[in-house]
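Before the break, one more example. Copy the sequence into your notebook; we will annotate it together after we see the structure.
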Amino acid sequence: MAMSSIQTTDPAALRYLMTETLFGISEEAPVKETGDGLAVAPVAPAAEAVAPKFPFYGKNGRNYLFLASEPQHEWLSSPALDALAKTLAALKLTVDDIALVNLGRLSTSPKQDDIFTFFSPRIMVSLGVPLPWEGLGTPAPNTVLTYHGITVFHTFSFDEMLADAEKKRLFWSTVKTLLI
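Here is what the structure looks like once it is written out:
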């Protein structure tokens, strides 16, 4: 007996003519009926990039970001942490208003976009930390500049300021005008 050649593009006819499974779908995959008798499994969305998270001290309530590089301490040395608390109190701020990130404790140097996206800083205080981000260069200590709409204050580390009254005075005269 010769086989006959049947040709159709009608989905309902194809469903009756093709009774064997051509490919399978896992049981967990949701199936959507198209209305013409065919079932379509949706394409899984591409995996979204996970935004990095950073350990930080404070709560970032006012988007004042302080960057330090103290690999030997969790955040800062005890005297430096005390000096930070006193500085904030003199400005009528608390640690809840700021975020302090110790870059020296991170396994890799964070990208500028990751830091800016995570913290949304209005003001960034670099406590003796070189900022290797494109277009920023290495500003001199006690320099205030604007970078991507963020006020950046590059200054000395708290430990350096505690050892030198002139550095402390320069820091205070600038920071009290920025963090108001």
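The mean pLDDT is 83. Helices lie at 11-17, 78-90, 112-119, 158-163, 165-178. Try to locate both features in your own notes.
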